[in-house]
């Protein structure tokens, strides 16, 4: 239940931020949703993936400051529910865009 709640909150927050961005720049919500979804996927992948370079660099920085050698284990790349929520948001924005502009795509 907690994972589903995290997924739902991620999609809602991305929708609200997308709405605010579209309102601020006087753009259509649907037109901004696909690029916003791609940026959200990219940002959440960088900050939530456990096996990426940013987390390893932070481990090395902590090791250099404290002098305590941390046990290094090869981490398996796993994706958080925030990342999956970003993918769900992007998928929903693709569907919404297709249904909004279906006359353009079909004819």
Write a structural description.
- This protein has helices at 2-24, 29-48, 53-66, 81-100, 102-106.
- By secondary structure, it is an all-alpha fold.
- α1 packs across α2 (29-48), α1 (2-24) packs across α4 (81-100) and α2 (29-48) runs antiparallel to α4 (81-100).
- The chain starts with a helix and ends with a helix.
- The mean pLDDT is 85.
- Keywords: Membrane, Transmembrane, Transmembrane helix.
- The chain crosses the membrane at residues 29-48, 80-101.
Helix content: over 70%
Enumerate the spans where pLDDT stays under 50 for 5 or more consecutive residues.
Answer: none
End-to-end CA span: 43 Å
Largest sheet: none
C-alpha geometry = elongated
Radius of gyration: 18 Å
- Helix/strand-derived category reads mainly alpha
SS strand fraction: under 5%
Count of helical regions? 5
Q: Give average pLDDT, whole number.
A: 85
State the total count of DSSP E strands.
0
Order of helices and strands: HHHHH
Transmembrane segments: 29-48, 80-101
Keywords: Membrane, Transmembrane, Transmembrane helix
